[in-house]
């Protein structure tokens, strides 16, 4: 209890009054879903992925595959599974038992978070909030919410500090921001979205991000959504995008890394993760993010009032946008973008061209960290590196080959960033600036240059905070072409000349 509370306080920057309200919202949503879940029928051709999602299949390497087959082959839902929270867990502890002795892991060790556990969790938090001795809660609330509101007035600013916003909203940046943007665009009315379903959907999206991931968590999703909003406002897009495009763009941004396990695709492949098998080693994570989003859309019935054809079309387009964030396919998209720009044949009256531009916008939003002001950019760099190194440490501990960029002995934050900026970010954003030659594009390229210079300067002056890598008989490979921030480094084609 004590540690739990400390954790909450640390993470949430502690305006407990808001925690209380949110706990109530979350409890309400969970309660409603504990009634509904399991009663949903699918008519999709890809039932498998959805079943997995619905059952909250959590995975243990090696053993997991047979378990997953078993889970999937169940026709109905066992009563006690009802209400289980869909949540992809990679249980690293069990890697150990795999490498040492291939004992089958007892079923109990499949970690599931049932919604009633979440209720308990929430109500405990609720309890501690109400008994907390020094709590001028109402004052804190107004103060924090007031500041968050103030920030929302400038939500289109490129300097928007999403970390601060997340603290002010008590860890609810993604919910607050997404709801605000949909509302501001009038999309809720236009698409006649049910407020209760919408809130359920957004809360569940936020919850299905793993807050323990240093980088791929709900704050990253909120950051990408905010960047996406900045791009949607750019004149060329603003005057041609339809409401449907905007809705899709914002939803895709908010869900694009949903249920990210905090490790990359090569890791999932080499540990025989069921998702790698399910998606045949191809865009494994992105497929899962998309399917997870579709799962939540269907669970909440957010689009159930639309004609079935429109709903399916939304799901398809959402998928096409999310799949475009697979960084290993960057050159494919970039070449197509270049070709269009060279031939000057993009016609934003054409729906498929608009869709392509949305894909490019989402790609930019996803990797725009190096284009933010240094103070923000630096924080993101540290977080993504922490996630890489965390994976590297797991790989070392379990005697797996350490993935590119994931070895804390041979990489530094600065080196990773310089490679990433040079081979991935610059090429993308310079094309984007050709397409949308605006002040924002110039600002982004400006920050990119300055941030790169800062990392180079830090490296040159040797004042990096990381320890110097130990001398290594095998020198680390030179920064690979196409270093990936979204960690999928092995499949990246070389940069174009
Ligand atoms: C995925 O990659 C692994 C490791 O390279 C391989 O063993 C497996 O057969 C591949 N699966 C598919 C469906 O290609
Ligand atoms: C829109 O663009 C696509 C791809 O360039 C093309 O195949 C299609 O014919 C265009 N549609 C219209 C209505 O111009
Ligand atoms: Zn992302």
From TrEMBL:
GO MF: 3',5'-cyclic-AMP phosphodiesterase activity; metal ion binding
EC number: 3.1.4.-
Annotated region described as Disordered, given as residue ranges: 458-497
SUPFAM superfamilies: HD-domain/PDEase-like
InterPro entries registered for this protein in UniProt: HD/PDEase_dom, PDEase, PDEase_catalytic_dom, PDEase_catalytic_dom_sf, PDEase_CS
Residues where Zn(2+) 1 binds: 220, 256-257, 366
Annotated TM spans: 15-33
PROSITE patterns: PDEASE_I_1, PDEASE_I_2
Domain PDEase: 140-462
Note describing how the cofactor binds: Binds 2 divalent metal cations per subunit. Site 1 may preferentially bind zinc ions, while site 2 has a preference for magnesium and/or manganese ions.
Cofactor(s) the record lists: a divalent metal cation
Metabolic or biological pathway: Purine metabolism; 3',5'-cyclic AMP degradation; AMP from 3',5'-cyclic AMP: step 1/1
CDD domains: HDc (cd00077)
UniProt keyword annotation of Transmembrane helix present: yes
UniProt KW keywords: cAMP, Hydrolase, Membrane, Metal-binding, Transmembrane, Transmembrane helix
Family under the similarity heading: Belongs to the cyclic nucleotide phosphodiesterase family. PDE7 subfamily.
Name the UniProt record assigns to this protein: Phosphodiesterase
């Amino acid at each position: 209890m004590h540690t739990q509370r400390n954790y909450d306080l640390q993470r949430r920057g502690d305006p407990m009054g808001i925690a209380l309200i949110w706990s109530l919202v979350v409890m309400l949503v969970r309660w409603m879903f504990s009634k509904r879940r399991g009663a949903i029928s699918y008519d999709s051709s890809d039932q498998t992925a959805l079943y997995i999602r619905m059952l909250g299949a959590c995975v243990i390497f090696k053993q997991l595959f047979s378990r997953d087959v078993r889970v999937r082959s169940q026709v109905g839902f066992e009563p006690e599974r009802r209400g289980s929270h869909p949540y992809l867990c990679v249980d690293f502890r069990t890697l150990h038992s795999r490498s040492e002795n291939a004992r089958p892991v007892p079923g109990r060790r499949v970690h599931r978070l049932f919604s009633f556990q979440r209720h308990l969790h929430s109500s405990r938090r609720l309890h501690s909030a109400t008994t907390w001795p020094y709590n001028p809660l109402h004052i804190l609330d107004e103060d924090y919410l007031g500041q968050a509101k103030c920030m929302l007035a400038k939500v289109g600013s490129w300097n928007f500090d999403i970390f601060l916003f997340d603290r002010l909203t008590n860890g609810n940046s993604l919910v607050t921001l997404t709801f605000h943007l949909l509302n501001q665009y009038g999309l809720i009315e236009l698409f006649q979205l049910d407020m209760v379903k919408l809130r359920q959907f957004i809360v569940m999206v936020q919850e299905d991000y793993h807050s323990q991931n240093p980088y791929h968590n709900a704050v990253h999703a909120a950051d990408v959504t905010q960047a996406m909003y900045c791009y949607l406002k750019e004149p060329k897009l603003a005057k041609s995008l339809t409401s449907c495009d905007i809705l899709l763009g914002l939803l895709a941004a908010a869900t694009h890394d949903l249920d990210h396990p905090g490790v990359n695709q090569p890791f999932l492949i080499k540990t025989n993760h069921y998702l790698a098998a399910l998606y045949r080693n191809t865009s494994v994570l992105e497929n899962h993010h998309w399917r997870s989003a579709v799962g939540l859309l269907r669970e909440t019935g957010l689009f159930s009032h639309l004609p079935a054809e429109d709903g399916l079309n939304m799901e398809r387009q959402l998928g096409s946008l999310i799949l475009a964030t697979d960084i290993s396919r960057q050159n494919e998209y970039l070449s197509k973008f270049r070709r269009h720009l060279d031939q000057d044949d993009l016609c934003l009256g054409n729906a498929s061209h608009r869709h392509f531009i949305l894909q490019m916008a989402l790609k930019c939003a996803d990797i725009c960290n190096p284009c933010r002001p240094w103070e923000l950019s630096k924080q993101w760099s540290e977080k993504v590196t922490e996630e890489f190194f965390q994976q590297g440490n797991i790989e070392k501990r379990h005697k797996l080959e350490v993935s590119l960029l994931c070895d804390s002995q041979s990489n530094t934050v600065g080196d990773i960033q310089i490679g990433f900026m040079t081979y991935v970010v610059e090429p993308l954003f310079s094309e984007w600036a050709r397409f949308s030659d605006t002040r924002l594009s110039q600002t982004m390229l400006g920050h990119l240059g300055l941030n790169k210079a800062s990392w180079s300067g830090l490296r040159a002056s040797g004042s990096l905070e990381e320890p110097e890598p130990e001398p290594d008989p095998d020198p680390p490979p030179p920064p690979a072409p196409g270093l990936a921030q979204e960690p999928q480094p092995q499949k990246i084609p070389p940069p174009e000349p």
